[in-house]
């Protein structure tokens, strides 16, 4: 399997190991497979009933290529998913006759990011161990990526992590899950700004010679292809349980940075019979406007009770635009340069037509989110977090045929947003016993201004040179 940049020449490629360790391409683009692997209906049907680690290895094997032997990939999947609190890893829960919840929060940090990052941490250690290299991860988080990435790499050989989060704009549980990890290879940075500011700093670091000349910079955000690859698996897991490949299934996905829903697109390209992908946004609705009107323009970020969706620059949308535009890297590079310069661009007619064949979108107001949480609690006995509620609202508003089941991705445990859940439902969710002492743990993090040079210099003074 070869990987190419969305902004680069089709002639330049790297393998899966290279894409995993690089994260972002040197030209500012994102890595995607040169071709999408395709599974037949018979091959998909043969995956029914497999334990999750075995299913994961089967789905991911075409993307890994020669970088890992099949037996080694399976062993890493067994180790990654052995830490989850549910035997099914990503269990499917029925709400009513057509709506289902895919619970993605049974990992160590109670969010869907664990599904990918537990594996990514092992992949980093595996590949770095081959050549004795050092990897400096720089990442930005709107809440859940940071804790999941830190848990995955804390104490691992050859890797260190610097995680940026917007100061005061994530929940107290999300913050403490990061800042209470005191391993020497973990560095938390609270910046005065938004998630989009933090993400822009991280992208800039990949092209900054003051860092790249001394350190091997890597990524854990969903700009890293390996993370997206691991998320593809749970679409297969859910669809197989609901009758695939003989039955089509739709998914409603709470969306900020577009990585989670893009994984569903990859599953579709692989042959999984997905009827529709519903992109659910809150009032920070750049993706809803892009999909419904062709208007991809950033506005000011509005803080909400669903902080992981308080985003106005959706990095992974570039991957979809690349595919929908016929994989014309030069045209995509021009389009993204326009967006980066003015924070606005328009989708081409061909991009819009291609995307509309699979995707639809919906925007949820705060009242819609609250109503969805109440419905889940009162009608189904389920507590759900604000992000999952936004996706459930979009799912219940869908006009799809009644014979198509709709799976809502439940991306975080409700206890991560206990204040918002309690306001909506009157019930305060409890933290699971495995992190029940979270608020008694010591915290450690640095507070920095929203200034790129300050953040860069902080990292440069503490990171370990590549050699």
TrEMBL record:
Cofactor: pyridoxal 5'-phosphate
Biological classification of the source: Bacteria, Pseudomonadati, Pseudomonadota, Alphaproteobacteria, Sphingomonadales
CDD domains tied to this protein: Thr-synth_2
Catalysis: reaction(s): O-phospho-L-homoserine + H2O = L-threonine + phosphate
Protein's name in the database: Threonine synthase
Entry EC number(s): 4.2.3.1
PROSITE patterns recorded: DEHYDRATASE_SER_THR (PS00165)
Assigned keywords, A-Z: Amino-acid biosynthesis, Lyase, Pyridoxal phosphate, Threonine biosynthesis
Source organism: Tsuneonella deserti
Ranges for domain Threonine synthase N-terminal: 2-81
Sequence similarity: Belongs to the threonine synthase family.
Pathway: Amino-acid biosynthesis; L-threonine biosynthesis; L-threonine from L-aspartate: step 5/5
Top EC category: lyase
Domain Tryptophan synthase beta chain-like PALP: residue ranges: 88-334
Xref: Gene3D superfamilies: 3.40.50.1100, Threonine synthase, N-terminal domain (3.90.1380.10)
